[in-house]
Amino acid sequence: MVYFALEPSTPRILFKGFNLFPKTIAWKDNRVVILDQRRLPEEEAYFECLDAHAVAEAIKAMAIRGAPAIGIAAAMGIALGALGIDKKDFTPFYQELSSICKTLKAARPTAINLRWALERMRGVCETNKEKAVEAVKGLLVKEALAILAEDIETNKRIGEQGKDLIHANDTILTHCNAGALATGGYGTALGVIRRAWEEKKGIKVIATETRPLLQGARLTAWELTREGIPVTLITDNMVGYLMQQGEINLCIVGADRIASNGDVANKIGTYTVAILAKEHGIPFYVAAPLSTFDRNTKTGKDIPIEERDAAEVATLWGRCLAPRGIKVRNPAFDVTPHRYVSAIITEKGVVKPPFEKSIRRIRGKDGG
Ligand code: MRU
Prior knowledge:
Layout: E1 13-16, E2 25-28, E3 31-35, E4 45-49, H1 52-60, H2 67-83, H3 90-105, H4 112-127, H5 133-162, E5 171-174, H6 189-198, E6 204-208, H7 215-226, E7 231-234, H8 239-244, E8 250-253, E9 257-258, E10 264-267, H9 270-279, E11 284-287, H10 311-314, E12 315-316, E13 319-320, E14 333-336, E15 343-346, E16 349-351, H11 355-365
Parallel strand pairs: 5-6, 5-8, 6-7, 8-11, 11-15
Antiparallel strand pairs: 1-4, 2-3, 3-4, 9-10, 10-14, 12-13, 15-16
Bound molecules: 5-S-methyl-1-O-phosphono-5-thio-D-ribulose.
């Protein structure tokens, strides 16, 4: 099978049977190992990144995707980049590292977790600039591994905080993939679903296929099926019908960035689901770590929306879906205004409207 728009562009070492999942990414022998999500569900294949540019490419090409996962990847990219810098003095070392940081930052613009992770890595450099460069390199590797470990813990806490919002025998709609694949492991929206499943609530999941790159069909359905959680796949345009038929009790999605007023950027199509949920009186929940909240973004209008390659819309696996040269729009995310959001589930608690106040309060618990 040929994955046209999804085909990796950089040379890489690919291997199968590595069995890393439920982790999407790992640090192994000073290399970054990534589960190639473009190949799922047909192939569980991994590749190694030997330098930071390969990590940036993997993020850009969406071999690894999902807001928290690309944050972890960027942190590991910095650690990998640092190891490759042959400078003894801090200033030239930091200069070179800053340029690597720029490359990683530019890989994808919408998810704030990427910038958040890079800021954390920069903080390690700033705090330890008096130390020997070799020691700083070791601390950067340690920080990247801490970001990965913390993310898994955070997701489990999100699951714990959100599980009571799910009632026995609920049918839950989720859009895109906010699962183990989109994070360090366990997942945000799927973390809540996993936790409810562990509590034997007898839930069912409806996964939207999520055009154009089919994260719902390829990734969410794959994750849930592996764990025996009942999942039914629908195309994105079936959501309204199913809600009208009373077949959906609640919606849970992830987020790429949450503004200070509670507006939520997430995968394109989330806004449509949220409006439909409101129309049908169905709760619409967002599950996200505090690292997804951007204190520098006042409202959703300030969130940059990534526009991706036309080929992702006009072709599928090497075949044209539309006349060649057709004009295409491909915004990868949309913003759901906070008035459509019933609550936001974080690792520190469930945030409810009025969001501006409750977000400030929960961020306070985060030390900010
Ligand atoms: O373009 P993607 O696949 O990176 O988009 C992913 C999403 O929109 C997820 O819902 C979001 O990142 C939350 S992941 C926990």
